[in-house]
Amino acid sequence: MAEHFDLVLRNAVIVDGTGAPRFEGDIAVRASVIVRLGRVGVARVQREIDLDGKVAAPGFIDAHTHDDRLMLSDPDMSAKVSQGVTTVVAGNCGVSLAPFPVMPAVPVTPPLDLLDDSGGWFRFPSFSAYVSELDRHPAATNCVLLVGHTTLRVATLDDLERPARAEEIARMQTLAREALAAGAAGISTGLYYEPAAAAPTSEVIEVCRPLAEFDALYCTHMRNEADRVLESLDESFRIGRELGVPVIISHHKVNGVSNHGRSHETLACIEQHRQQQPIGLDCYPYYAASTILSADRAAAASRTVVTWSKALPQHAGRDLAELAGEMGVPQAEAVARLLPAGAIYFSMDEADVQRILAYPPTMIGSDGLPHDAFPHPRLWATFPRVLGHYSRELKLFPLEQAVHKMTGLTAQTYGLEGRGILREGAWADITVFDPARIAEAATFEHPIAPAHGIEYVMTNGAMVWEQGRATGAHPGRVLRRTPGR
Ligand code: ZN
Ligand code: CU
Hints:
30% of the residues lie in helices and 23% in strands. It folds into three domains: 87 residues, Urease, subunit C, domain 1 (Roll), CATH 2.30.40.10; 295 residues, TIM Barrel (Alpha-Beta Barrel); 54 residues, D-aminoacylase. Domain 3 (Dna Ligase, domain 1, 2-Layer Sandwich), CATH 3.30.1490. The strands form three sheets. Strands 1, 2, 3, 4, 5, 17, 18, 19 and 20 form a nine-stranded mixed sheet that branches. The chain has an eight-stranded parallel sheet with strand order 6-7-8-9-10-11-12-16, sandwiched between helices. The protein is built from 17 helices and 20 strands. The chain is an alpha/beta fold.
């Protein structure tokens, strides 16, 4: 009697996520698991697809996202599954949707407004309440969750412009411990941003103490990614060493014209410290950054584009210098009129971006901002851009390496058992794409568009993207970190 499978993908070129050379084969899935990989004989199958030489890879893992709320408010997650992403790491840059024992005052402090500018979504009194909501209402993608230090500060301190006091640190520790027990894989910080900038290194270390009990991760948007980037790397590594936990440097970059070329120094520094302690990093494939609008940042960039504005929403998508010209005011005054607002800053060096992307330990993370009116194209285009533009066209690294940076490497860094790899017994997170055609469609001019060349995307064995559309299936799970890998 023939074996029974739910789905068989035949004649695939398998890029398994480990970085190993591609090979030809079939993949059989039963329920949510890959049960056969290689040759699949005659079988009774629910559905069979002939891939005709297209690539089957592990579903991509977006190492850096702000999808905490998107998973609940738009569970199809089209911006992500359209790129082949089946797992997102949320809660980055110090900003997580939970916990808020008391809902924050409205309007919420930037950068928390990246997740929700009305404030109504910050309604989870504990991290476990947020996790249960995701369990009850899953999205199309799996997720790995971080709890944000800035969120903990906003939930605890009456004044964000000073270091936390002992009793406030104790309260933040309790909230952090609860989050880690509820399934958070680590704590993120955003020491660059105002609500956390007053936190000295010692506060961060004390709030993050519970990380050690869980062997969880310390992920950081560093205090400085410009002139003082090396000091900030040192601070991050020191925090990791004192806690005895792995460090992840978020969206690694060097900002500002005067720092162009300094990725030589930062990567040498990271490489040297990696000999002594576990360090990971992620990067998005663009030389333009995006975050909240500030006059200082705009002054250091060669060009600034408004991505959203609460005060003047009609200006989303406009060039800041042009706008200031039309208003007949200096750029700083135009910024003041637009705030609160977000922006894209052309502030990096393309050679730095390529050097960081090509560095073997670098994972791919979009840092996409899903609630911006006119988002940075990294939200919809990060993964196809790495595969198409950087791997196929510029030959920065072979396809197998590109896939590894968005699958196996990321699963290993975050401790995700049975993810990021195609093998028998692994979870059936699978992305099928045409290696000759895969390319970004979203651009700075038209930032919302699904990628070219992504054919099928499945999460836990269920199809989530097919024929250029989200299927409406929401099979995602909250993933737990398996430490010590
Ligand atoms: Zn950040
Ligand atoms: Cu971020």
